[in-house]
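Subject: Sanity check before I submit

Could someone independently write out the structure tokens for this chain? I want to compare against mine line by line before I put it in a report. The sequence has 217 residues.
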Amino acid sequence: MLLLALDTATPAVTVALHDGDDVIASSSQVDARRHGELLLPAVDRVLAEAGLRLDAVTGIVAGTGPGPYTGLRVGLMTADTFGLALGVPVHGVCTLDGLAYAADLEGPFVVATDARRKEVYWARYADSRTRLTEPAVDRPADIADQVKGVPAVGAGALLYPDTFPQAHEPEHVSAAALARLAVERLKAGEELPAPRPLYLRRPDAQVPKNYKVVTPK
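---
Independent answer below. Compare away.
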């Protein structure tokens, strides 16, 4: 087994290689505006660090978000392209699940990432491996009662201390954690889904409401 894991659902552009026993190379850079520029060089970097070629990869793991449309699609399209080119399976893992796994907390907690527009993407967890709710996008003030008294991790939690007073790191997801979680699930016999994006809301760029279509006579 050699899994290439990547995620671009948060400001972190993160890539890792897992050989079935542990992560053998990883790279993470935080830059919310350069996912497309940074992802492929990061893949090249982790392959070079491991002394391997891309054709040695036997599977791809992609973070499925939730996340902003532009950043998220960079990782998912790259994962699908690698999968088609190499003829290997592509597995999807929720980005929030990767953060929860990296947090390694025992009791109930919340994962929240920055959704911009003064909102967060979030979900509740029973422990680092068990999600209790579907990912959602909300204003922090609107979910304050639901997360009251519960520890929280992620950049979204750190941004809004009034709603998440017990917030702490990890701030962004790491592909290393995503890969470890995927391998653990695969070894347990779980069938991971194909990567389908969790956008949760419409993209910022939309056709104006009063747009007039002009057709030739």
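---
OP: Matches mine. For the report I'm noting this point. Residues 69-86 form the longest helix (18 residues).
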